Amino acid sequence: MMTDLSRRRPRHGHAYAFLMASVALVGLAPLAHAQAVNGAAPAPAAAPAGAWAWRRGEQTAVALNLSDARVTVDLDGTVLIATDRVRDGAEFDGELAPWQGVVVDVGR
Questions:
Q1: High-pLDDT (> 70) share of the chain, %
Q2: Fewer CB within 10 Å, N side or C side of the chain?
Q3: With helix as H, strand as E and coil as C, how does the chain read?
Q4: What is the CATH number of the domain that holds 40?
Q5: What is the pLDDT of residue 57?
Q6: Are the CB atoms for 83 and 101 separated by under 8 Å?
Q7: Which of 92, 91, 85 is nearest to 71 (CA)?
């Protein structure tokens, strides 16, 4: 039996909740911003060992910490969405806890 995920209410902290919020983020982006991201190829951004960062267009960057250690990436801006959701809307200082990720508006 298949579950209709569109009828489920995601629990905070659950991976499905993060996925749904990420999809919603795309729909909330201003048109010009969305077009810039959709038409732009990912461009690598500086990141230390264990982390991965890239930019999409002029305004958007993604940073992932894929390690068990805290890392600092060279990005700043406003967090659009974070894996722990506590940082949503906060200023991003470049710090990522272990296994944390963020989508950042670097154009603000």
A1: 62
A2: N
A3: CCCCHHHCCCCCCCHHHHHHHHHHHHHHCCHHHHHHHHCCCCEECCCCCCEEEEEECCCEEEEEECCCCCEECCCCEEEEEECCCCCCCCEECCEECCCCEEEEECCC
A4: 2.60.40.1180
A5: 79
A6: yes
A7: 92
How far apart (Å, rounded) are the C-alpha atoms in residues 62 and 50? Answer: 14
- pLDDT value for 75: 92
The mean pLDDT of 97-106, rounded to a whole number, is 91
Q: How confident is the model at residue 15, as a pLDDT? A: 60
Per the structure, the count of domains in the chain is 1
pTM attached to this predicted model: 0.71
Residue numbers of the domain that contains 52: 5-105
Classify residue 29 as exposed, middle or buried by CB count within 10 Å of its CB (0-12, 13-18, 19+): middle
Out of 4-8, 52-56, 60-64, pick the least confident.
4-8
